[in-house]
Amino acid sequence: MIGWDRVRRELRGSAIALVMVAATTVVTYVLTQSLEVRRGSVIYLLPVLLAGWHLGLIPALIAAVAGVLWSGYFFFSPYYSFYLARPNEIINLLLFMVVAVVTSHLANSMKQQTEIARKREKETSDLYAFSRRLAAASSARQIYLAIEEHLANLVQRNVILFGAGGGPKPEQAGLSERLRSAIADVQQGRTLSTTVDDGAGDVWLVRRVSEKTADFGVIAIDLGSVPPQALAEIRQRVDGVLADAAATLEHLDVAHALNEAKMRSEAELLREALIGSVSHELRTPLASILGAATVLSKSPALANDERLSSLAGVVRDESERLNNDIQNLLDATRISSAQIRPRQEWIEPQDIVNSALERRRRRIAGHNITLNMDSNLPLIYVDAILVEQAFVQIVDNAAKYSPPGSSIEVAAKRNGHAVVLSVTDQGVGLTADEHAQLGKRFFRGARHAATTSGSGLGLWIAKAFVGANGGTIEAESAGADRGTTMAIHLPYALPSSQPEVGPDE
Amino acid sequence: MSDANPVVLVVDDEVQIRRFLRAGLELDGFTVQDAETGNDALHWATLKPPDLVILDLGLPDMDGGEVLERLRAWSSVPLIVLSVRSNEAEKVRLLENGADDYVVKPFGMAELLARAHAALRRRVQASSGEPVVKAGPLSIDLAARLVTINGERVTLTPKEYKLLQILAQHAGNVVTHQFLLKEVWGSPHLHDTHYLRIFVRKLRQKIEADPTQPRILLTELGVGYRLVVPESANQAAVAN
After folding, report:
1. What is the mean pLDDT of chain A?
2. Global pTM?
3. Is the domain covering B2-126 a CATH 3.30.70.890 domain?
């Protein structure tokens, strides 16, 4: 089926070809007259090449035939006749026609490639502009706008986004029933992508923006009346565009999440700074309260009055307890901001136990303390301050969770390659559930939460401090109300690497 | 008698702390001079040389450590530092720079007084030339290099004796690891804390009734050792 356009174009081309041949003939005539040229048929290739290049196959063939006839007229006998008799002329005719075919074919494919290249260039620059918009987009809205515009530019028709971008609802977009149900199918995840005829002769491509998640919405693209074979190519391009866009949307989501995390960690820092400063602010008056209470309890006015001096004792004990709680808060802050740096040195294990008991002398005064320490324990290489604090904690717990007057056994023993510092009480013991949860941050046994004050931080801190020294805290209990043994296990170096000193002169 | 009262210079910017320190110290027979700032403290220390200084580290105009340094340039007055917990390195640094002892805030008055008396007595002993230091049943005659427990002679190796001698010279006050290591083993062994641990263990076996529960030679974790003398022990017992 050749359209009239084509016929007219070919006719016009053929006419131009004939004009070129005529012009060539004039030149040839002049040449033959003035220069006695007798072998110039090759000159007629010129119009054939030009026609083939610029005008197409048919004008080129016409130029070839006309050229051969005219060259026969001028250069071959019988001269000045169009009669083709010699084999040379037949060969010329064939040669010219081949040149016409080849040239026009070459020119044609060249033009096609140029056209393709130009189209690609435009697509590339469109895509480039699109990806720049994506890169610059700081909100999902901007990305959706870019998608809509870019796809609309690509298909030169209507593009509608539904969902995440806050676009219209399918019901409101004035779409046909079939299109709406296709959109609903994709939105509800029954299919990722589908094409549908809207009933008015237009094919729509409906698909999810992201293949991974429905969160980024659904896009409907009016492809017009595309032939089925072109559909695959368009779908591929749309896929490409949407893959980029979805990736950007995902990044934006990640960026959003990162932003939130940053805000959270800043809140955490603020919280810790607050705890630090509040602790300091609380401690300063505490130092005055505690100091003043100890002065009062010694003053002659109170010393002789049992009731009053015991009140001074209450002030002192409670402010010490408060001070302890504040210390725990500070320690918890140090732990959660990973600021524990053990300063390890060789230390006598008993020194840690004795120092802890000295610090808790008043707290445990109401209990019957028995000490059971091996006299020749190996030295251990730990941060004594941290381990002491952990031990103070388990001493505190023993005193707190066992009745006054009951006995508490404090022991320092060697056990395999560990030194074990333990505290055994006759107190409330541990249920299996409590045992499992013991030492978790803020864990408080339900049995005691109402009757015994505490923050649920102490043992968690103790575990962190001992852990920082390569040790563990282990709890043992025969069950509720059957006492508890808490033990700090600290590894020690093998005898061969125990420190030695030079000879004593 | 007021002339005989030792004068103590209390340097702290917290008015409430100064108030209870004044009360506690006056009850104990001290005459108290307050100072709020470092400059104030240095001013009073020159104008009216005290017998004892109690120095808080957090001062508004300069660090307590600087006050100590400037004071030590010309004065050997006994000095107790008021410190905060969990900063052993700072305590050690201040002790090395000439502080006689420290107490950790918050503290009881008895603890501070025990440290203060120990520091005061040391100066008195140093100036009077009294050669015998007593710590419970333990008696150390620094002139005769003689150590006895309940009158019975204890045989010590030279290094054990040197260790005990240094502690006795600072009886009642803490002596840092570094100081002991330098004095007994020499500068190259400043960080060989385990030398100390091992020799202290040997020493305790000779001088303590129960070496696992020492009553005379106490460990100050992260800082050093302290030889407990009767007065400070008694003071602590009374207060507690």
Report:
1. 83
2. 0.63
3. no
